[in-house]
Amino acid sequence: MINRRFFLKSSGLALVSGAMIPNVFVKMANAATTKGRKVVVAIFQRGAVDGLNVVVPYAEPAYYAARPNIAIPRESVLDLDGFFGMHPSLSSLAPYWKDHSLAFVHAAGSPDATRSHFDAQDFMECGTPGVKTTPDGFLARAVKGPSPLRAVSMTPTLPRILSGPEGAVAMTDIGRFGVRGDVSPMFEAMYGGAFDAAKMLKAADPQKLQPENGAQYPANPLANSLKQIAQLIKSNVGLEVAFADVGGWDTHAGEGAAQGQLANNLRNFSEAISAFIRDLGSRMSDVVLVTMSEFGRTVRENGNRGTDHGHANVMLVAGGGVKGGKVYGKWPGLADLYENRDLAITTDFRDVFAELLTKQLGVASMKSVFPGYEPKWRGLLA
Amino acid sequence: MKRFLLLGVCILFTATSSSLTDRQRATHALDRLAFGAKPGDVDRVLAIGVDRWIEQQLHPERIADHDVDARLAPYATLSMSSHEIYEEFEEPVIEARRQKKELNEIRDMLPREKRPRRLIEELSAQRLIRAVDSERQLNEVMADFWLNHFNVFAQKGLDRVLVTSYEREVIRPHMWGTFEELLRATAKSPAMLFYLDNARSRGGALNENYAREIMELHTLGVDGGYTQKDVTELARVFTGWSIERPGEGEGFVYRRFAHDRGEKTVLGYHFRAGGGMEEGEQMIRVLAHHPATAHHIAYQLCQRLIADEPPASAVDRVAKTFLATGGDLRKTVQSVLDGPEFWDPKYYRAKMKTPFEYAVSAIRAVGGSIDDPLPVARQLQQMGEGLYLSQPPTGYSDTAQAWTSSGGLMARLNFAVALAENKLPGVRSVNADTHAVTLMLGSPDFQKQ
To answer: What pLDDT, on the 0 to 100 scale, is given for residue B113?
Structure first.
């Protein structure tokens, strides 16, 4: 509905969709009474975060051998299970690890060998690694709900992962999504569906909702996105999938260790997520948050105390139904590296999403979501 | 009656699908080779003749642009060297930091026009003034294309000091020369050396960021046939290509002692041990004239000027011209326009405008004048196409897929409302019928060029 079609729509055609507008409000009324609607929140860390410094295999000596300047010292990591530990910047997430609502999947990723940011992001978002002709994003293919706000991306442009004929809404400010002035009805006639979401938002007025449970969102773009996603969830507007992205992970130089560039980014990242979880409180039982990044980074640090483009990475999964307090995935170790430089992939990122989409959103079949792939559930969710 | 109407529609369709009318040709040329028509532009182009107008536009150096030159004069940083910029904008900040001042203290200390962000503001202002009002319109279209092709993110550390001279000395003077010269200029530019980390890459302490992107984005293209081994070996070739006192806005330097002197093989080219800077020079020649590069550049130019999925016949012809002329960029651009594809009616008003193209073409369409470009620059940022602010080396996408979204649409419609009602900050536009203008600027047709 909200896609390239509305740009092509002639005003003649739009009259038809204008006449359909009341249906949306009927659907909306239904949506508002549907309690316990499940939501998936996906965060893309663009630029390839260094997963080995996020969830650190601190018990593996090869890790320290490969990273003389940028390894997270053993005494700084926040131990998870005696083998892995979190980067100290993730400390605000520790309570959720302890109460088993947070898990990680390590050595996960997209199996295509590309080390191009652009291609790797594209492959991941389309859900078809190695195939460049897929026209739409896999989350767009998974979302089928009736609400015009069923899929929302907190970005100025619609990301690949949510583009497609069923479409999604992209915005950066839920309070300003709409057209000012008295010409609005005429634009509605021109563009039809695009305005359903705007009207629904105006009626629900989610931006008036304050963070709850003492949650304090830090001042960073990801936190701003998550705060607004929380407002949408609380407003019961029929949201099923929300998306946000965050950049700054391409640490080719001066990555830092327990402190420094990556540490600062990770603090912004984790504090945004922990504020979101806290804000949603008990509502979090209906929400699963998952993170992804296009590939990992080289096991060995490069000449500039940074890391170059690698392969496998780590994903974070948090929320209701998550069997947390565990690092999932077969650990391939740092002795036998992919192409002699990178962490090998043992869990396809599609396995993680397939389980989430099936158990959380009730998507019946993964055939159209991940064509040509048979996902294997990893038992992440109850 | 109904049948007659239908017939009329059919005739209209046949007429438009065989070839463009003269008026459509002029409009199309202004849409694609300029940032849209100002009131009266179509008639002016028709009076000159479309082909002659294009010929003029292909030689921007012959077109006077005094008005725009005069309007850019007050933007003092545009003509400053990187070192002058460093002394004026960075040193006070560094000094304040040395005195352990807090960020907000530093901000309060510096008047607005002395803050480092002023640099990007003046550059953005310059781009918008030129795009809206320069007589050298094709030159501005190509500046947008090449700055995006050789993207540098102005907010990566020192790059804020370096982008001014990057645009002025590296991109703009080489846009109509050979691709090899343009590529070499970027390879030796402090802005690129810093942005893609090559300035820090040393023998035995490699950084492969630039080596990858020069092949993937600048030359061969991601499917251009190179391997991870080629990336690593090319990174070794470029070791030592660095910046003289990088913190202070100085120029290119080759550091002999940082160069990896071992033997190397890149894309089948073998370098014996003991080599130096000439290895990088040779690889720039090889990459600049590689058939995969010809195809990649041809594809991108055709994508920009013809269609999101450009016809293979055009791409092949342009690639051939690129190779046959040694990468002559004027002839290469001309070759995009020489074939039948550019003028095919199916591409008339068929390409989605990017936010930059939309905003500029809207201001031009209403004959608006920009008093202060910064509010428009900020709007572009909110629409996802902030000038000089693309963080990944890929730059911004040029296809409809990237820019079609409900949020983007709302932003455009609000832009249209404000501009039509003469309420767009920084822009004056007097419109007799604001209602009609709003609907025109917000119409699906006007989103396309």
So the answer is: 80
Q: Distance between CA atoms of A63 and A71, rounded to whole angstroms?
A: 7
Q: Are strands B369-370 and B427-428 parallel, antiparallel or unpaired?
A: antiparallel
Is A190 in contact with B200 (Cβ distance < 8 A)? no
Is residue B152 within 8 Å of B193, Cβ to Cβ? no
Evaluated on CA atoms A277, A283, A288, A291, the torsion sign reads negative
Q: Which of B153, B146, B241 is nearest to B189 (CA)?
A: B241
The answer to whether B180 and B212 are in contact (CB under 8 A) is no
d(CA A382, CA B19): 63
Burial class (CB in 10 A: 0-12, 13-18, 19+), B290: buried
Kindly tell me if the per-residue pLDDT of A189 is higher than 90: no
The partner residue sitting opposite A157, judged by closest CB among B384, B442, B444, is B384
For residue B400, the chain A residues in CB contact (below 8 A) are 4, 7
Count CA atoms closer than 13 A to B348's CA, side-chain side.
Answer: 19
Asked whether the beta carbons of residue A4 and residue B207 sit closer than 8 angstroms, the reply is no
Task: Please indicate whether, in this complex, the C-beta atoms of A3 and B201 are within 8 angstroms of each other.
Answer: no
Token code pair at residue A192: 């039809």
Measured between its terminal Cα atoms, the distance across chain B in Å is 34
Place of tokens 């269609």: B307
Q: Could you tell me if B83 lies within 8 Å of chain A, comparing CB atoms?
A: no
Q: To 10 degrees, what angle do helices A261-280 and A221-234 make?
A: 10
Rg (CA), chain B: 24
Centre a 10 Å sphere on the Cβ of residue A73 and count the other Cβ atoms it contains. 12
- Cβ neighbourhood burial of A262 (10 Å; 0-12, 13-18, 19+): buried
Give residue A21's pLDDT band: very low, low, confident or very high (50, 70, 90).
very low
- The residues facing A56 across adjacent strands are A85
Tell me which of A174, A255, A264, A308 to substitute to probe the interface with B (most B C-beta atoms closer than 10 Å).
Answer: A308
Please state which of the ranges A30-44, A106-120, A300-314, B427-441 shows the lowest mean pLDDT. Answer: A30-44
> A133 to chain B: nearest residue by CA?
B309
Give which of B410, B13, B449 is closest to A190, Cα–Cα.
Answer: B410
Contact A7 B352 (CB under 8 A): yes
CA–chain centroid gap for B161, Å, is: 19
Choose the closest CB to B410 out of A153, A177, A302.
A177
Reduced to 3 states (helix: H, G, I; strand: E, B; else coil), residue B26 is helix
Q: Are B414 and B360 in contact (CB under 8 A)?
A: no
Residue B422 Cα, gap to closest chain A Cα (Å): 13
pLDDT at site A20: 30
Bridge partners of B264, per DSSP, are B271
Tell me the mean pLDDT per 10 residues along chain B, length 449. 38 59 97 98 98 98 97 96 92 82 76 86 98 98 98 91 97 98 98 94 92 97 95 97 85 96 98 98 98 98 98 98 98 97 96 97 96 95 92 91 86 93 93 90 94
pTM of the predicted structure, to 2 decimals: 0.84
Nearest to B240 by CA among B261, B255, B262, B260: B255
Between A and B, how many residue pairs show a Cβ–Cβ distance under 8 A? 143
Return mean pLDDT, chain A.
88
Contact B438 A183 (CB under 8 A): yes
| B53: its two tokens | 């107008």
Tokens of A80: 């998870």
Q: Confirm or reject contact between B358 and chain A (CB < 8 A).
A: no
